[in-house]
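Intended use. Records like the one below are meant for learning the mapping from a protein sequence to its folded structure. Do not use them to infer anything beyond what is encoded.
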Amino acid sequence: MKSQRKALKKQLDNEMIHITFSKQKEVMGRLHPVSFKQKAQLIWNKEIELPLLPLTAICMLICLSLGVKYINNYDSIPDSTEKKAGELIKIEDYVYWKKDLEKTVMRYED
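Structure written out for the chain above:
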Protein backbone atom coordinates (compact mmCIF):
# COMPACT_ATOMS: atom_id res chain seq x y z
CA MET A 1 0.00 0.00 0.00
CA LYS A 2 2.78 2.43 0.89
CA SER A 3 4.72 1.56 -2.21
CA GLN A 4 1.61 2.21 -4.32
CA ARG A 5 1.20 5.65 -2.69
CA LYS A 6 4.83 6.47 -3.27
CA ALA A 7 4.52 5.43 -6.90
CA LEU A 8 1.42 7.62 -7.38
CA LYS A 9 3.13 10.52 -5.65
CA LYS A 10 6.22 10.16 -7.83
CA GLN A 11 4.07 10.00 -11.00
CA LEU A 12 2.10 13.10 -9.92
CA ASP A 13 5.30 15.01 -9.18
CA ASN A 14 6.71 14.09 -12.61
CA GLU A 15 3.54 15.20 -14.38
CA MET A 16 3.34 18.51 -12.52
CA ILE A 17 7.02 19.42 -12.53
CA HIS A 18 6.49 22.17 -15.12
CA ILE A 19 3.64 23.79 -13.12
CA THR A 20 4.83 26.37 -10.60
CA PHE A 21 2.89 28.42 -8.10
CA SER A 22 4.17 31.99 -8.43
CA LYS A 23 1.88 33.99 -6.11
CA GLN A 24 2.53 32.15 -2.88
CA LYS A 25 3.42 35.33 -0.95
CA GLU A 26 0.24 37.10 -2.11
CA VAL A 27 -1.96 34.20 -1.05
CA MET A 28 -0.23 33.89 2.30
CA GLY A 29 -0.64 37.64 2.80
CA ARG A 30 -4.37 37.33 2.24
CA LEU A 31 -4.66 34.40 4.61
CA HIS A 32 -2.82 36.20 7.42
CA PRO A 33 -3.52 39.95 7.05
CA VAL A 34 -1.11 42.28 8.78
CA SER A 35 -2.09 45.81 7.82
CA PHE A 36 -5.45 47.51 8.36
CA LYS A 37 -6.07 47.63 4.60
CA GLN A 38 -5.57 43.88 4.30
CA LYS A 39 -7.87 43.25 7.25
CA ALA A 40 -10.53 45.52 5.73
CA GLN A 41 -10.29 43.68 2.41
CA LEU A 42 -10.69 40.39 4.26
CA ILE A 43 -13.86 41.69 5.95
CA TRP A 44 -15.37 43.12 2.73
CA ASN A 45 -14.68 39.88 0.90
CA LYS A 46 -17.19 37.95 3.00
CA GLU A 47 -20.30 36.57 1.34
CA ILE A 48 -23.58 37.28 3.07
CA GLU A 49 -26.56 35.03 2.55
CA LEU A 50 -29.95 36.57 3.25
CA PRO A 51 -33.01 34.32 3.31
CA LEU A 52 -35.58 35.72 0.90
CA LEU A 53 -38.82 34.87 2.70
CA PRO A 54 -38.06 36.41 6.12
CA LEU A 55 -36.44 39.45 4.52
CA THR A 56 -39.51 40.02 2.32
CA ALA A 57 -41.82 39.58 5.30
CA ILE A 58 -39.90 42.14 7.35
CA CYS A 59 -39.93 44.66 4.47
CA MET A 60 -43.68 44.17 4.00
CA LEU A 61 -44.33 44.71 7.71
CA ILE A 62 -42.31 47.92 7.68
CA CYS A 63 -44.13 49.20 4.57
CA LEU A 64 -47.54 48.33 6.00
CA SER A 65 -46.81 49.95 9.35
CA LEU A 66 -45.63 53.14 7.63
CA GLY A 67 -48.71 53.06 5.39
CA VAL A 68 -51.06 52.69 8.36
CA LYS A 69 -49.27 55.51 10.16
CA TYR A 70 -49.52 57.73 7.06
CA ILE A 71 -53.23 56.95 6.59
CA ASN A 72 -53.96 57.71 10.25
CA ASN A 73 -52.07 61.02 10.01
CA TYR A 74 -53.75 61.89 6.72
CA ASP A 75 -57.23 61.34 8.17
CA SER A 76 -56.51 63.68 11.08
CA ILE A 77 -55.24 66.59 8.91
CA PRO A 78 -58.64 67.80 7.58
CA ASP A 79 -60.03 68.11 11.13
CA SER A 80 -57.27 70.50 12.13
CA THR A 81 -57.53 72.53 8.91
CA GLU A 82 -61.30 72.85 9.26
CA LYS A 83 -60.89 74.37 12.71
CA LYS A 84 -58.30 76.83 11.43
CA ALA A 85 -60.02 77.81 8.20
CA GLY A 86 -63.60 77.93 9.42
CA GLU A 87 -66.67 76.08 8.37
CA LEU A 88 -67.80 74.72 5.03
CA ILE A 89 -70.93 75.95 3.25
CA LYS A 90 -72.68 73.83 0.64
CA ILE A 91 -74.52 75.70 -2.13
CA GLU A 92 -76.25 73.39 -4.60
CA ASP A 93 -73.63 70.69 -5.26
CA TYR A 94 -70.59 72.86 -4.53
CA VAL A 95 -68.76 73.24 -1.21
CA TYR A 96 -67.09 76.54 -0.26
CA TRP A 97 -65.14 77.80 2.70
CA LYS A 98 -67.16 80.38 4.56
CA LYS A 99 -64.37 82.97 4.64
CA ASP A 100 -63.68 82.62 0.89
CA LEU A 101 -67.38 82.90 0.08
CA GLU A 102 -67.75 86.02 2.21
CA LYS A 103 -64.72 87.65 0.52
CA THR A 104 -66.11 86.89 -2.93
CA VAL A 105 -69.59 88.14 -2.08
CA MET A 106 -68.19 91.34 -0.52
CA ARG A 107 -66.08 91.97 -3.62
CA TYR A 108 -69.09 91.71 -5.95
CA GLU A 109 -71.44 93.72 -3.65
CA ASP A 110 -69.19 96.80 -3.69
